[in-house]
Amino acid sequence: IFCGRFSTVQKRPQKIVGLKGKRQVGTITSGERGVNTTMVVCVNAAGVYVPPMIIFKRKRWNDDLKVGAPSGSLVTISDTGYINSELFLEWLRHFTSHINVSKNKKVLLLLDGHTTHSKNLEAVEFAREHGIILLQLP
């Protein structure tokens, strides 16, 4: 049994706004509300883990994004910094390359109910073909 977790963090560039000479000032963030980075991690109770997938918000790839990433990590980009259906399928392929799974040796993969996995027929078929039983929790 494996648990896949998708977590997004937001780096917010902060600007300080205040009148000259005032001791109390407020802060505002840019209209963009920051830059998203998503990390997908997966582990089981026996301590077996899949190297993470890290998704940066970018339009163009830069090899420097891999610098400092854990060994075996899948580092990629998306326009939003969030996972999407295409990237979820890419992560499933990454998952199967690190876990001993087959139609005869199935694994249960627990996921949240996000639409990138629940409404992704290609990913569901891929999982079925490779012995992965997907169970989505609300």
Describe the structure.
This is DDE-1 domain-containing protein. Residues 37-138 form the DDE-1 domain. The chain is an alpha/beta fold. The protein has one domain. It is built from three helices and eight strands. The chain has a six-stranded mixed beta sheet. A two-stranded antiparallel ribbon has the order 2-3. A hairpin with a 4-residue loop joins strand 4 and strand 5 (49-57). Helix 1 runs parallel beside helix 3 (121-129). The radius of gyration is 19 Å and the shape is elongated.
- Give the H and E element order: EEEEEEHEHHE
Strand content: 35-45%
Strand order of the largest sheet: 6-5-4-1-7-8
> Please, what is the average pLDDT?
85
Helix content: 10-25%
The major β-sheet equals: 6 strands, mixed
Anisotropy-based shape: elongated
Distance N to C terminus: 17 Å
* Number of structural units classed as domains: 1
Number of strands: 8
- Specify the structural class: alpha/beta
Radius of gyration: 19 Å
Poorly predicted ranges (pLDDT <50, ≥5 residues)? Answer: 27-32
- Which assembly state applies to the chains in this document? single chain
The total of helices stands at: 3
